[in-house]
Amino acid sequence: MRKRTTLALLGAVLAAVLVAGATTGCGSKSNQIVFCSDTTYPPMESLKGNEAVGADVDIANAIAKLWGKKAQIKTTGFDVIIPALLAKKCDAIISSLTNTAERAKKVDFADYVTVGALLMVKKGNPAQISDLNSLSGKTVAVQASTTEKDMLDAQNKILVKEGKAKISYLIYPADTNAAAALLAGKVDAYFADATPVLYYMKKTAGRFEVAGTQIDAAPEGIATRKGDPLGPKFKKAIADLYANGEMQKILAKWGISQFALAK
Prior knowledge:
Layout lengths: L5 H8 L18 E6 L2 E2 L3 E4 L2 E3 L1 H12 L3 E6 L5 H6 L5 E2 L7 H4 L2 E16 L16 E5 L3 H15 L6 E5 L2 H9 L5 E5 H10 L4 E18 L4 H14 L2 H8 L10
Parallel strand pairs: 1-5, 1-6, 8-9, 8-10
Antiparallel strand pairs: 2-3, 3-4, 7-10, 7-11
């Protein structure tokens, strides 16, 4: 393996850029399942050259294999990923999509992991961040349309009521750019799911640390259109992958075994 400096390594990690907009039309071939995915979210989904890689990609492939089909990953911006599904530009979403009550009004979920959010800061935590309340008066990088963005909005309402300074945040369409903002010193913290936070920390050899503990752990699932027969099929496929041990192997491969669904 070629050795790189820590800075160069993070640059490589963050090199996966958002492909603007999904192309029209999902797969009509009976031998493939088309998944919309925001491929800027390692280790769940990112681009290695032109190839999508990550835990979600492996899960999509494993499910397709169970069905005797092929999985196709269609890079789609996270802020338009549910509209893309509803417009039938793909058959399902697999993209670290948290199963929230609001989203469940629009799509059906087949849950496969449980993940919370984490705040990542520079080593030594110079801004002394410990939780959402401690972000008062500070600046945070976050990806658009995420549950983390929603949590910051909710926290700002609390801060206003308490007469405290609001949280400022820079919103990015690609999560890799949000993480890069912390590296560049543009923000005090980066706020995302625990999966990419722990990935970046591992890849940067101690340049960053977690501030506080995991926040609001919740299930993430494969999303399908309301009432689509694929929904129950995905639930069964996920149960089968857990039963035969394949899901555990995929999660272990990507260093995220702790986020497996509880038995």
